[in-house]
Amino acid sequence: MNLKDISTSVPKKDHKGKVSGQLPYISDVKVENMVYGVLYRSPIAYGKIISIQLPNLPEGYEAVGAEHIPGPNYVKIIKEDQPILPMSGSIILVSQFSCSRAKTWISCTVC
């Protein structure tokens, strides 16, 4: 690995517009009937989800799982080996609920 590659700053095309206030950040974008989601990352580096209990969701809200991702369920940090969502079962991405509430629906055990 060439360390020069990771220590070189890469200017992004939208930096000047964002810091000057001419362009919005994604968190500034609002649309009608917008809903929010929460992704809770496990505090356990290597664990196994043993249960997820979801509340009854209001009409129009959904829980999302790995099976809903079009393509690989991985994110590349150093190599593509970090799952974004649990490999099986439902997920704790529930619109209109806070992250702290989502945490109460999950219990994990270390493998």
Automatic annotation (TrEMBL):
SMART domains: Ald_Xan_dh_C. Signal peptide: none annotated. Coiled coil: none annotated. Residues 20-82 form the Aldehyde oxidase/xanthine dehydrogenase a/b hammerhead domain. This is Aldehyde oxidase/xanthine dehydrogenase a/b hammerhead domain-containing protein. It comes from Peribacillus frigoritolerans.
